[in-house]
Design a protein that fits this description.
With about 250 residues, the chain is α+β, with helices and mostly antiparallel strands. The protein is about 30% helix and about 25% strand. Strand 3 and strand 4 (about 135-145) form a beta hairpin. It starts with a helix and ends in a 9-residue tail after the last helix. Bound molecules: the ligand Nc1nc2c(c(=O)[nH]1)N[C@H]1C(S)=C(S)[C@@H](COP(=O)(O)O)O[C@H]1N2 and molybdenum atom (MO).
Length: about 250
């Protein structure tokens, strides 16, 4: 049987992890540039093995899409109360003043209004959102592929990660370019045939169906393209590893 280079690297990672411990697998992963930003510390080697193996095996795989009859009714919402006065004012004005800025390692940094995003190419998909705490629901998501926006701002070739921030000060996440350019990764502005309700992150939310709920940041207003996550926050790639959750939450 003939093995692809990818299969050989993956087999190497897994055998190394079994034979000489996770740290050995991390050395191999580092050689192939597959170390996640939270790959240091006690859980680091485990995080590295998960991320590296997933990247080699499932980079192009699609999250399962469902049909209309499977949409949860009513969808379950995590109650979040981010709504300061500024948010409420914006909501009263139907988010006409809401801007999503896209900056960092891009040739043409700019910001987008919700209306501009709504008139961009749209993708609609019915997918599952799962919280790390165990509950989940299926909904229809309507949005602009993040890849479309990244093409418009002309992401530089050195770019490796996309950070996205919420109006909530400590809520931010990041994904690698494989997930950022994945066709199912959306800047969602609609849900179940209508606008995206505020309870679900309206006016704009990052929808990354190949990762757990917490990577799906609500009330998104800022995107930063970078080659180095160490420069942000505590250098672990996002707010979740600072709170003990994995940076890479692939499902
Ligand atoms: N801005 C913001 N986004 C957020 C959160 C949050 O508290 N604030 N919670 C996250 C978590 S932990 C989960 S599981 C999902 C929940 O999504 P839902 O409200 O659509 O169920 O949103 C994620 N996005
Ligand atoms: Mo969650």
């Amino acid at each position: 049987m003939k093995y692809s280079r990818r299969q050989l690297i993956t087999a190497g990672l897994v055998t190394t992890a079994g034979a000489s411990g996770l740290a050995g697998a991390a050395v191999l992963a580092r050689r192939y540039g597959l170390i996640p930003p939270d790959g240091g510390g006690f859980y680091g080697p485990g995080e590295t093995l998960t991320y590296a193996a997933q990247r080699l095996l499932t980079r192009h795989s699609m999250a399962r899409e469902f049909d209309r009859t499977q949409i949860s009714n009513p969808p379950f919402a995590n109650v979040v109360e981010p709504y300061g006065d500024e948010f409420k004012r914006s909501q009263q004005g139907h988010f006409a003043d809401w801007r999503l800025s896209v900056e960092g390692m891009v040739a043409r940094p700019r910001s987008f209004s919700v209306a501009e995003l709504k008139s961009s190419p749209t993708r609609t998909q019915i997918t599952h959102l799962a919280c790390e705490e165990g509950w989940s629901y299926i909904a229809e998501w309507i949005g602009v592929p993040l890849s479309h926006v990244l093409n418009l701002v002309e992401t530089l070739p050195q770019a490796r990660y996309v950070i996205y921030r919420s109006i909530e000060p400590d809520t931010w996440e990041s994904i690698d370019m494989a997930d950022a350019l994945h066709p199912q990764t959306l800047i969602a502005h609609g849900m179940n045939g209508g606008e995206l309700p505020v309870a679900f992150g309206g006016p704009l939310r990052l929808r990354v169906p190949r990762q757990l709920g917490y990577k799906n940041v609500k009330f998104v207003n800022r995107i930063i393209v970078t080659d180095d996550l160490k420069k942000f926050g505590k250098g672990l790639g996002s707010a979740s590893p600072e709170a003990g959750y994995a940076w890479y939450a692939g499902i």
